[in-house]
Design goal:
globular, 2 domains, membrane, transmembrane helix, mainly alpha
């Protein structure tokens, strides 16, 4: 991959993440329109987001090994959390925590194998847990969660080298997957 393509890839993924954050913050602002504290919160988040974007834009990081497998891991995390949350009534936080905890144990189980994919698996599954925490009012079907997991997986792969060491990336990616599939479901129905 040449330098121009890498630069375009990074900028595109940064723009997508910034737009997702703006959509998330706009949803909060739209929901609580007359609250001054929300306006202050949005201003602080915007400042921190711009600061992070400028600070992290020039860092170089390696590309994920197998993108399509990471998409499957995100989808698996979403479905596992969804099943525990809504079908077994464990609750969203405990479900996500349990799936995320089990995912973090995987590299320790395969510690003799120094394979890059095993190291990349836990964050991808954990990203999916945020998708699986989706409210039953938004998406209560396996199809919705699967599609949202796939979209979030694609966004996860695109955002692998952006906003490294910045909190909230996995949640933002999950929000993007769920919001996109919810928007498509509204358009179709």
């Amino acid at each position: 991959m040449n330098f121009k393509m890498i630069k375009l890839y990074r900028r595109t993924s940064m723009v997508i993440l910034v737009l997702l954050q703006l959509a998330f913050v706009s949803a909060i602002f739209y929901d609580v329109l007359n609250e001054f504290s929300v306006l202050v919160f949005i201003g602080a988040i915007s400042f921190l987001g711009i600061f992070s974007l400028v600070k992290m834009a020039h860092e170089s990081h390696e590309k994920p090994t197998k993108s399509y497998i990471l998409i499957l891991f995100v989808t698996f995390g979403a479905l596992a959390t969804f099943i525990l949350n809504l079908k077994l009534n464990i609750g969203p936080v405990i479900s996500a925590s349990l799936v995320g905890f089990i995912a973090t144990l995987i590299p320790g189980i395969f510690k003799n194998k120094n394979h890059q994919l095993i190291k990349e698996m836990p964050p991808a599954i954990y990203c999916g847990t945020f998708v699986g925490m989706t409210s039953a009012n938004i998406g209560a079907t396996y199809w919705f969660i699967s599609l949202a997991g796939i979209v979030a997986g694609i966004l996860y792969v695109l955002a692998t080298n952006t906003f490294v060491r910045v909190g909230g990336k996995l949640g933002t990616v999950a929000f993007g997957g769920v919001a996109f599939v919810f928007l498509i479901s509204l358009i179709i129905s």
